[in-house]
């Protein structure tokens, strides 16, 4: 059972790391702000989600597990909203750091 | 593995620090400074300084970062500063190198193990009634430092306000915000406050026994208030308002009152009688919390700019 949970953690955290890597490569390689935002939100949402879900069996407590999931949900809400705000700034032509 | 992580952290921290100093663009330097603050938080976690990590994330990276972004935006409309002469640069380089050398010499000259008061704190912490050693040091053993810190913050706000124009006095700080009422910012400013209030008060309350405390909690509450201000849902209070001024001095005055009480009951200013140490520490924390929240939130909008209601 414990080996199975460890395998779950390894697979999910590795998958999360792949999304982080892809998001970072996208941030560095994509040509404009909107596509870079698109790449970053994948790291926030999917990457962090997979890492959190992978770590939940390892923390040894329901409360800490719920706190981890809450962190993921908060990052998703704020990440999605901030991405919208930046995208609106870009569209209106006042990109703060082109 | 941990060594590899620590080494990578140190390398990235040094690289970011160099970037902050060398970046040509002020905005890029501030962005690097915020990333530096977040990585420094990780470094403090690796050193098991969780209280300091929380403070660094909230104040070092978060609030200071926001203040610096505000400064960059103000500088855009200001006339460009004259470029530094080679004389100034040389003086700055010599001053920085000397400071670094003196600091390094001091750290390297420490005996091994370094002198520490930690055993003394560990022996006496039971008297204070709090379990978090950081809180015990800040509010019982070295409370003079904390009192002066709170007063310095108050002076910082008074300094920021005094930069306002006479015509704007006693108006509201910052510019009026007009985000679309159904926009995404207003949405965020409606769903985050309940969560932020609970987390801020929890971090404040748990500070007696676990990592946390009034500074970290107050920063979270201030951030939530600033979010609602930025979305146009609330407005900053007028700097002349009586309740605001009363609340701003209430914290330090409460702290000083506890100190004077100590000079009668325990024989020294700011001394805490052991039988009442825990309630008095709580009283100081509760008195300081609203003051700190107000100061930290109002530092960002800066001097008063609008006289209209």
Automatic annotation (TrEMBL), chain A:
Does the entry feature the keyword Cytoplasm, yes or no?
Answer: no
Provenance organism: Glacieibacterium arshaanense
The transmembrane segments are 6-28, 48-66, 72-90
Which residues does UniProt call coiled coil? none
GO MF terms, alphabetically ordered = sodium:proton antiporter activity
Per UniProt, the keywords (alphabetical) are:
Membrane, Transmembrane, Transmembrane helix
> What name appears for this protein in its UniProt entry?
Monovalent cation/H(+) antiporter subunit G
Disulfide bond as UniProt keyword = no
Matches recorded under InterPro entries: PhaG_MnhG_YufB
From TrEMBL, chain B:
Query: MrpA C-terminal/MbhD domain: which residues?
Result: 12-76
Can you tell me where the transmembrane regions are? 27-45, 57-75, 87-110, 147-164, 184-205, 217-234, 246-272, 279-300
User: By its UniProt entry, which Pfam families does this protein fall under?
Assistant: MbhD, MnhB
Gene Ontology CC annotation, any one: plasma membrane
Give the bilayer topology.
Multi-pass membrane protein
Location within or outside the cell: Cell membrane
Can you give the residue ranges of the Na+/H+ antiporter MnhB subunit-related protein domain?
184-292
Keywords, in A-Z order:
Cell membrane, Membrane, Transmembrane, Transmembrane helix
The protein's predominant localisation is: membrane
Entry similarity comment: Belongs to the CPA3 antiporters (TC 2.A.63) subunit B family.
Protein name in the entry: DUF4040 domain-containing protein
- Species whose genome carries this gene: Glacieibacterium arshaanense
């Amino acid at each position: 059972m414990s080996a199975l949970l460890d395998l779950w953690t390894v697979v999910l955290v590795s998958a999360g790391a792949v999304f982080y890597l892809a998001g970072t490569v996208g941030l560095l390689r994509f040509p404009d702000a909107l596509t870079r935002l698109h790449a970053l939100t994948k790291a926030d949402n999917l990457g962090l989600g997979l890492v959190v879900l992978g770590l939940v069996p390892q923390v040894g407590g329901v409360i800490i597990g719920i706190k981890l999931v809450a962190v993921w949900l908060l990052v998703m809400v704020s990440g999605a909203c901030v991405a919208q705000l930046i995208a609106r700034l870009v569209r209106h032509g006042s990109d703060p750091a082109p | 593995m941990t060594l590899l992580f620590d080494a990578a952290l140190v390398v990235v921290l040094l690289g970011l620090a160099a970037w902050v100093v060398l970046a040509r663009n002020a905005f890029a330097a501030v962005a690097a400074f915020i990333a530096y603050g977040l990585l420094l938080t990780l470094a403090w976690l690796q050193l098991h300084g969780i209280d300091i990590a929380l403070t660094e994330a909230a104040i070092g990276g978060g609030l200071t970062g926001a203040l610096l972004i505000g400064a960059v935006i103000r500088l855009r409309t200001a006339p460009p500063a004259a470029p530094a002469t080679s004389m100034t640069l040389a003086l700055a380089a010599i001053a920085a190198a000397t400071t670094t050398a003196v600091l390094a010499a001091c750290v390297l000259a420490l005996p091994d193990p370094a002198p520490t008061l930690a055993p003394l704190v560990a022996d006496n912490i039971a008297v204070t009634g709090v379990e978090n050693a950081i809180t015990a040091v800040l509010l019982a053993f070295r409370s003079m430092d904390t009192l002066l810190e709170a007063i310095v913050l108050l002076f910082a706000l008074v300094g920021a306000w005094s930069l306002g124009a006479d015509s704007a006095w006693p108006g509201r700080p910052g510019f009026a915000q007009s985000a679309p009422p159904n926009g995404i910012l207003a949405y965020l400013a409606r769903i985050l406050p309940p969560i932020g209030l609970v987390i801020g008060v929890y971090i404040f309350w748990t500070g007696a026994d676990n990592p946390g405390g009034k500074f970290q909690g107050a920063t979270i509450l201030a951030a939530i208030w600033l979010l609602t201000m930025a979305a146009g849902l609330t407005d900053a209070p007028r700097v002349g308002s009586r309740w605001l001024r009363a609340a701003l001095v209430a914290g330090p005055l409460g702290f000083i009152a506890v100190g004077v009480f100590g000079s009668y009951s325990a024989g020294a200013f700011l001394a805490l009688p052991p039988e009442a140490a825990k309630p008095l520490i709580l009283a100081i924390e509760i008195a300081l919390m609203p003051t700190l929240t107000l100061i930290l939130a109002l530092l960002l909008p800066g001097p008063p700019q609008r006289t209209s209601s």
